Amino acid sequence: MFQRTLRHLSAINSIVFLLIFMVFGTVLYGYVSYRLFDKVDEAARLKASNFKIANGRPAPLGRSRFLFDPRIMILLREPSGRVVSVFSREDIDVEELSKMASNIDIGEKKTVEFDNHAYRIVSIPYSYEDNVMNTRHGPVTVNGVIAVSIVDSEMALLRNLLVIIITGLILGVMIIVLAGYYLARRAMVPIQGSWDKQQEFVADASHELRTPLAVIKSNAELILRHPTHTVEDESIRVTNIIREVRRMTKLVSDLLTLARADTNHLELQMGQVNINELLDTVAQQFTPLAELDGHRMQIEVAEQMEVAADRERLYQLLVILVDNALKYSSEPGTIRIAGARQGGNVLITVEDSGQGIPAEDLPRIFDRFYRGDKARSREKGGTGLGLSIARWIVEKHGGKITVESQRGVGTKFSILLPSKGLKGR
Fold first, then answer.
1. Per-residue pLDDT of the chain (425 residues; tens, 9 = 90+)
2. pTM
3. Secondary structure of the chain as H, E, C letters
């Protein structure tokens, strides 16, 4: 599948690069052509507009030097459309050129080629009162002036430019293909990574669901083997089923939370949250559980703090961290929850005196379904999704979560919430 996608992306990238190159070449050719002929047209138009007839002969006024430009010839148009030449040229078939110029309408400009030469023809109306001129063809009534310029050098330059563009395109096709393939490979890296993570996520989720389903199925089958037994007789198996159902419910709820978070369908309900009250609530909830396991809860908050946040999500975040601290603390242990200001922000820490996290596991503890000791985590009811949800909650609030841990000493999670919306009392 990925190879086919890679080929498609490479083809699309190559086509895009090719089109960009062609558009650039076309624009460059058009711009050079415009600039070249614009100067030629301006010179021809200026010479034609300065042509004047006086006493039946050409009498240029003002900028007379343009009449002697050897590249520009002047032709006259009669009301009938016939074009006659004013000056003869031995190197050019003026009569044939006059016939070709007769097809040019007044106000039009055009490039024509004949007799191995290229000519730029510009036709403008004659605007002076004296419009009868004596020529070798006899008296001519003039209603238009046509300036003809030889543009062999300009056409040669354009032909060379076109050859360069086409040659560059041909030679650049291989580079374009390689560049398209390279960019496609770069684009496929995150796609491949996302696909691998998705496959790993599906495999882990299936594995996590398969275990409780197997327990439920086996206990239910054992109950069916003894249809005469009472609920009391099968209480152990019923308890096993209920425990696994709860575990599955928690797993599905966590999966739903992460799935909605990935699609940005899970929005925060922002409001002013009293950090002191929130920490007290979490501590009061977990104190009885800690005492049952021989642990001690400590809460340290120096001053009153409020922050703009989603209270339910912050509560869920603290529950995840404190619950993990209780699970992995050695008896008797200490669970310490603290809150303080740091540079105008709120810093919340959850610290335990437990077994700690191996250094090789620290970079991956926030990955979904990742657990350093999978068997032990499963025994304690963990799904491997809690810390992933915790990180999402913190990042959704624009904060940062970090962890410090040392084997045999304990683990410390630090949450830094941004100063936006922070208020003091």
1. 677 888 888 888 888 888 988 899 999 999 998 888 888 888 888 888 877 777 677 765 544 444 456 678 888 888 887 887 776 665 576 777 787 788 888 888 888 887 788 888 888 888 787 778 877 667 878 888 888 888 888 889 989 999 998 888 888 888 888 888 888 888 878 777 777 777 766 776 776 677 778 888 888 888 888 888 888 888 888 888 888 888 788 778 777 777 777 666 667 788 888 888 989 888 888 888 888 878 888 888 878 888 888 888 898 889 889 888 888 777 778 888 988 888 778 899 998 887 888 888 888 888 877 766 544 444 555 567 888 888 988 988 889 999 988 887 888 999 998 866 444 43
2. 0.52
3. CHHHHHHHHHHHHHHHHHHHHHHHHHHHHHHHHHHHHHHHHHHHHHHHHCCCEECCEECCCCCHHHHHCCCEEEEEECCCCCEEECCCCCCCCHHHHHHHHCCCCCCCEEEEEECCEEEEEEEEECCCCCCEEEECCEEEECCEEEEEEECHHHHHHHHHHHHHHHHHHHHHHHHHHHHHHHHHHHHHHHHHHHHHHHHHHHHHHHHHHHHHHHHHHHHHHHHHHCCCCCCCCCHHHHHHHHHHHHHHHHHHHHHHHHHHHHCCCCCCCCEEEEHHHHHHHHHHHHHHHHHHCCCEEEEEECCCEEEEECHHHHHHHHHHHHHHHHHCCCCCCEEEEEEEEECCEEEEEEEECCCCCCCCCHHHCCCCCCCCCHHHHHHCCCCCCHHHHHHHHHHHCCCEEEEEEECCCEEEEEEEECCCCCEEC
Residue 63, number of CB atoms within 10 A of its CB: 11
Length in residues, the chain: 425
